[in-house]
Amino acid sequence: MTFPALSIKDSINALVNWLVAHWGDQLHAVSDFLLQWLLVPLESVLRGTPPWLVLLIVAGLAAYATRDWKRTALWVGLLFLIGCFGLWDALMQTLAIVLLATLLTVLIGLPLGIAMARNDRFRAVVLPVLDVMQTLPSFVYLIPVLMLFGLGKVPAIFATLVYALPPLARMTDLGIRQVDSEVLEAAEAFGSNRWQLLFLVQLPLARPSILAGVNQATMLALSMVVLASMIGARGLGEDVLVGIQTLDVGRGLQAGLAIVVLAIVMDRISQAFGQDRRQKLALSRGDAR
User: Fold this and answer.
1) 239 close to 262: Cβ distance less than 8 angstroms
2) Which pTM value belongs to this model?
3) How far apart are the C-alpha atoms of 246 and 17, rounded to whole Å?
């Protein structure tokens, strides 16, 4: 059997070349803005903050979110262990990239999910795009951003953004659509307009679902740390990559454990913020499974 020749690589390459030729200056401006005004200042603040103060802030957030001092002490102790490994500076670099990528994901994914929930036609168009974004191998995202933005931390942020965006948009759409229609009818009966319904009824009731989406986006952003190091992003991922390249198993495993610790801490704290007060009390007493 002979297959007819078919290829889309030339068309994709032509599109990327066209974007670089016609929008190169604008893309460069966006890259400079993110780097100089957002990422570098955030990274400088995190790296310049005394470790004890960072641990104290994490302890405060964890205690407020969970109402559980035992787990708070455990998580702070694990972060302290990363400092003992000599990876504190790399941890702050990784945290800066993850926080900025998550922030951009929320700024884009939340309005996108709201628009999907309020417009069925728009949702029908966007869902297949989100499916493609969610199912493509994460390595694929590195190629176009590398062509458009070059090496460095900014393309790593954009690749992470594309990878982490679909869950947040989907969970926001789902949370708003699951709001009880009777509640909406009651709010409309009291004279609420569309914007009041959205901000005073739908978004507050969809909060657990939205925060679950933020949690998933954060975890996906962390999962891109090692891959992002392949295009110039530094931090813990770089240590893992160097460990692989030099067959330094100890270095790679130590940095990998640091990434796992950071993921556990961020996951548990973000999950706790999505729980209501009764769930927190139940968990603190050991009643919830």
Assistant:
1) no
2) 0.88
3) 35
